[in-house]
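User: Can you recover a sequence for this backbone? Please restate the input before giving your answer.

Assistant: Of course. Working from this structure:
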């Protein structure tokens, strides 16, 4: 006689085994449970295929919109889990990792269409009974408790705790699920969800396009980011910033950056925008400012004085301001203004200005603040540098201040430079940022460890010193910091992530042309080398009178300066000035004969002569006529030097009676003799003798010599005669304009303009509009919208001679050739100059960079500069008897400069490629997040996608065949070796031999590879899908791929152990508590890509 009931403990007796006995052909099965797993179906497949029907009720809302409980967020996540559990619960990972779910899902779906129907309750309740009822011809069998229909409840996956349920036969079984049929008929509370169920199941077995699966991968990687998106941090769409002229002329990638920057400013109070040159950072920043202006915030822009026009021009309702907005109100001040206590700058009274009331500060060229604040002892002595002033007066005081920094080079070989900039965002309060970043280590430790890793890497032999090697040694936390507070997109990224048709492309860069003219046309025995040797003998103590003050009188002068609250001591200021003047002489000699002659004779020599005359008069009459205060004009210095604090503050006159003027006089007389010799030599070089100037003529006019493809008669782009000539100095541009403008007008009928300093504007074009923006509009009419400014004036300027006041923030892409008449000491500036024409959307097919170099070996040139810096430094330190000449950092900087200048002779490089070792572009994941958000807008189904999906990718050769597995570590602490940027996710690319092709630590590299293989492939690749299905018997025979997965995880495990050991012995961060990967069971498969060699891209129709 059959037992009326049986106790099931899923240990000695498994529920699944008993059900196999009880389910008979023709049975009607009714189940009420929270979830249904296709792996449970697979376990009972033989029996279930013989039944007459299955009716399944989900006991909690599943596959329904829960209309009755809208807004109850706590239910949404469990509901999502319930729906996902069709594809296996957490206990069924082992089966998921066997990779056969595609075949199982297909079989399950076919069976459901034929035999099963699903309904779901549509309210949350704890009262709905669960269980199972099997009605056969002669009996009714019931299972009294069945919370989930999955392998665990069937007894095939072990359970931590012993649980019991019972199987009942009639008559005891009759009372179980006796209300099932009335529930089934109740349309008010129970809804048919069979189609929704099948639709979800279909996702697991249909063929997916590579692109879709790529975004499934991104959706999983950035699920936390998606959950973090909340109204506190995202831009408020009710603020009308998108209805502005500016927003509507931004490219997609600029709009995406604006939204990201606002989110970062809201969350972290700061952000560094370091997009590549030519990607329009100025407009991006202005759009961010517009958002905050529309919210009534007070905004300050801080920029180098020479770049003020870039910002001032957008403030006013002028005809040539295409983005004017009456709400966009902001102040513009200069970096050097931070060191002033009074005076007027750009129309603002510095003494009355309420510095503490700025809500947003935008810092252009923020790398100028990379050295951080003054020491506490300096500050307590009343001496603050500009960084400390910015931090104390603006950021820490008054209203909370957000800081947007624009920088071409935020990361160089000193990571502390970057930390100092980021510190502006968190007011220097480490706890404030640590809390927001959610990193394992404090930000100070993160940067310290990064620097240690970099220094170790820098000591490696050149062939081992690869970017990949460096990236693999940096901590996960370092990436997290950069990813949180920086936005840096390279041209390569823009090409990959955005539609080229919409934004246009970059022009092709031709190989740079280099000229190395001698100083003179005839052999006058005046060479760079000889002049450098003479300069090298100069003492220039004319700028250091304090060295000669009697010791007993020194205090008097230091006391006088103390009330000035300056950052520098008197001697410190003078030493800085002396070094600056010496370096300026070298730079100006390299720039032009005219620039050198002016500084040498009209500035330095005349000051020495005047001082010696005053000393002589004092000796004869006792009258002290010493001016003692050198006159420095900012326009005589390049853009970097003119931004120094040497120009700021009161200069104290020293009385001759307080100093040992006779020994000073001897030094000055020695310098006077050298200056006289230099003057005699330089005066021999007339414009006709100036070989450099003559070479420039030849560049313009081929007929003088066949040195270069002639610009005017053989342009590199048809009909384009536009040319920009850059120099660091206004004296040089004046000289060039004087000698070239009339020549170009007489010979070719073309007009020239000169732009130098803030007021040096000239042109041969007869016009009353001689302001900077009008001249640039005549020169680059397309990019500057001439039709807005001068609709009735079609005249143009074709040659533009300019200083670095336009080396940033200007779009002059109508031109296709740029000449560096002098090679700037800072290689970054050369790339920024070229960025005026090397821009996205240019109408020119080709662009040409032309460089003029001094005719001297580059090594010799750089070494000479270094020696001068060293000698200047020694003279600064003589009073302290310190012989430490150039620091290792300065030597490193000189070596770096040498390498980059050498590169620029042969190729035009992007800034991100300049830095040896690391570029901020290598680190961020922001592009992927933005890309995902845009895809999600049109593909909301990503949220429902099951784990374990697959797509087939085409690779070019047999060696690249294999698989890319995307895994998630179940235990987020396990395997967190601080190197994988995507932890707890791992992307493992394994070839068909079972070897990892790319180290899992190079996650960004694999993401880029996947992106390039998948983007744009919006349909499955039919011929490869057929090949794959044939190989795997439609997904049933997956042992080959399952073995590859096993091998990949084994290698990951080995790497993880090595990383832990490496960290132990190299002072890295190690969590010894249960941190290493043990094997397959640590992971769940998110999705995978099979890589097959394929010729064509036939797609599934």
């Amino acid at each position: 006689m059959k037992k009326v009931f049986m106790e099931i403990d899923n240990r000695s007796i498994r529920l699944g085994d008993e059900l196999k006995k009880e389910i008979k052909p023709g049975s009607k099965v009714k189940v009420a449970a929270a979830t249904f797993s296709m792996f449970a179906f697979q376990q009972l497949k033989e029996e279930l295929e013989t039944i007459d029907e299955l009716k399944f009720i989900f006991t909690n809302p599943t596959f329904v919109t829960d209309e009755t409980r809208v807004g109850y967020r706590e239910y949404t996540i469990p509901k999502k889990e319930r729906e996902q559990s069709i594809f296996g619960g957490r206990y069924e990972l082992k089966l998921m990792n066997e990779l056969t779910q595609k075949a199982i899902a297909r079989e399950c779906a076919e069976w459901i269409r034929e035999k099963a129907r699903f309904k779901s309750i549509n309210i949350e309740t704890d009262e709905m009974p669960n269980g199972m009822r099997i009605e056969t011809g002669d009996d009714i069998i019931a299972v009294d408790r069945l919370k989930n229909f999955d392998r665990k409840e069937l007894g095939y996956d072990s359970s931590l705790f012993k649980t019991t349920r019972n199987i009942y036969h009639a008559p005891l079984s009759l009372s179980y699920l006796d209300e099932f049929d009335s529930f089934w008929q109740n349309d008010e509370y129970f809804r048919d969800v069979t189609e929704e169920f099948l639709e979800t199941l279909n996702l697991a077995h249909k063929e997916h396009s590579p692109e879709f699966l790529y975004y499934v991968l991104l959706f999983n990687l950035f699920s936390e980011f998606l959950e973090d998106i909340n109204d506190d941090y995202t831009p408020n769409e009710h603020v009308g910033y998108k209805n502005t002229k500016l927003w509507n002329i931004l490219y997609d990638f600029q709009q995406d950056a604006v939204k990201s920057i606002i989110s970062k400013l809201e969350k972290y109070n700061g952000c560094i925008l370091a997009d590549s040159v030519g990607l329009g950072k100025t407009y991006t920043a202005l759009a961010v400012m517009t958002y905050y202006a529309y919210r009534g915030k007070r905004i300050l822009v801080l920029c180098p004085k020479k770049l003020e026009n870039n910002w001032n021009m957008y403030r006013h309702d002028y005809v040539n301001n295409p983005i004017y907005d009456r709400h966009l109100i902001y102040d513009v001040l200069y970096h050097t203004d931070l060191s002033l206590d009074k005076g007027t700058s750009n129309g603002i009274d510095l003494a009355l200005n309420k510095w503490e009331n700025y809500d947003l500060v935008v810092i252009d060229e923020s790398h100028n603040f990379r050295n951080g604040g003054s020491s506490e002892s300096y500050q307590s002595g009343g001496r603050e540098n500009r960084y400390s002033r910015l931090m104390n007066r603006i950021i820490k005081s008054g209203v909370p201040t957000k800081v947007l920094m624009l920088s071409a080079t935020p990361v160089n070989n000193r990571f502390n430079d970057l930390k100092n900039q980021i510190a502006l965002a968190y007011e220097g309060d480490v706890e404030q940022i640590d809390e927001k970043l959610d990193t394992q280590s404090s930000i100070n430790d993160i940067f310290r460890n990064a620097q240690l890793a970099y220094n170790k890497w820098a000591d490696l032999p050149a062939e081992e010193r690869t970017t990949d090697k460096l990236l693999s040694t940096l901590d996960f936390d370092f990436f997290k910091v950069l990813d949180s507070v920086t936005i840096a997109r390279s041209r390569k990224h823009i090409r990959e992530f955005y539609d080229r048709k919409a934004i246009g492309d970059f022009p092709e860069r031709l190989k740079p042309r280099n000229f190395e003219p001698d100083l003179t046309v005839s052999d006058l025995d005046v060479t760079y080398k000889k002049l450098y040797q003479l300069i090298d003998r100069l003492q220039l103590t004319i700028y250091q009178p304090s060295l000669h003050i009697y010791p007993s009188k020194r205090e008097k002068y230091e006391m006088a300066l103390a009330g000035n609250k300056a950052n520098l001591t008197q001697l410190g200021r003078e030493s800085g000035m002396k070094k600056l003047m010496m370096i300026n002489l070298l730079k100006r000699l390299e720039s032009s004969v005219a620039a050198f002659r002016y500084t040498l004779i009209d500035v330095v020599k005349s000051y020495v002569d005047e001082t010696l005359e005053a000393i002589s008069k004092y000796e004869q009459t006792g009258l002290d006529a010493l001016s003692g205060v050198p006159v420095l004009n900012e326009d005589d210095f390049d853009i970097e030097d003119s931004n120094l604090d040497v120009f700021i503050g009161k200069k104290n006159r020293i009385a001759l009676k307080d100093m040992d003027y006779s020994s000073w006089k001897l030094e000055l007389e020695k310098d006077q003799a050298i200056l006289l010799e230099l003057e005699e030599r330089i005066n021999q070089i007339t414009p006709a003798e100036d070989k450099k100037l003559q070479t420039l003529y030849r560049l313009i006019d081929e007929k003088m010599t066949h040195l270069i493809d002639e610009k005017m008669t053989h342009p590199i782009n048809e009909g384009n005669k536009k040319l920009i000539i850059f120099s660091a100095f206004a004296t040089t541009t004046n000289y060039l304009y004087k000698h070239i403008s009339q020549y170009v007008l007489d010979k070719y009928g073309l007009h020239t303009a000169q732009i130098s300093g803030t007021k040096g504007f000239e042109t041969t074009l007869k016009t009353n509009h001689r302001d900077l923006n009008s001249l640039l509009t005549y020169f680059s009419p397309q990019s500057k919208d001439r039709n807005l400014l001068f609709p009735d004036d079609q005249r143009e300027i074709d040659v533009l001679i300019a200083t670095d006041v336009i080396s940033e923030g200007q779009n002059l892409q109508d031109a296709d050739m740029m000449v560096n008449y002098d090679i700037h000491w800072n290689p970054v500036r050369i790339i920024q100059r070229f960025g005026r024409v090397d821009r996205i959307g240019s109408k020119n097919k080709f662009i040409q960079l032309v460089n003029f170099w001094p005719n001297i070996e580059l090594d010799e040139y750089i070494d000479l500069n270094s020696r001068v810096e060293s000698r200047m430094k020694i003279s600064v330190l003589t009073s302290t008897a310190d012989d430490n000449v150039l620091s290792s950092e300065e030597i490193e900087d000189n070596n770096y400069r040498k390498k980059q200048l050498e590169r620029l002779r042969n190729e035009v490089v992007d800034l991100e490629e300049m830095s040896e070792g690391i570029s901020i572009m290598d680190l961020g994941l922001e592009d992927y997040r933005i890309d995902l958000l845009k895809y999600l807008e049109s593909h909301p189904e990503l949220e429902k996608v099951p784990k374990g999906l697959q797509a087939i990718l085409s690779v070019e050769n047999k060696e690249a065949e294999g698989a890319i597995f995307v895994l998630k570590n179940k235990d987020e602490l396990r395997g967190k070796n601080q190197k994988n940027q995507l932890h707890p996710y791992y992307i493992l690319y394994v070839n068909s031999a079972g070897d990892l092709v790319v180290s899992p630590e190079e996650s960004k590299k694999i993401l880029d590879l996947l992106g390039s293989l998948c983007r744009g492939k919006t349909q499955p690749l039919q011929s490869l899908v057929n090949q794959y299905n044939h190989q795997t018997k439609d997904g049933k025979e997956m042992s080959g791929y399952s073995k590859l997965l096993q091998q990949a995880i084994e290698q990951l495990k080995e790497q993880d152990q090595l990383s832990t050991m490496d960290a132990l012995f190299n002072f890295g961060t190690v969590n010894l508590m249960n941190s290493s990967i043990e094997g397959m069971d640590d992971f769940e498969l998110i999705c995978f890509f099979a890589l097959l060699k394929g010729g064509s891209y036939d797609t599934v129709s």
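That completes the design. DSSP finds 41 helices and 30 strands in the chain.
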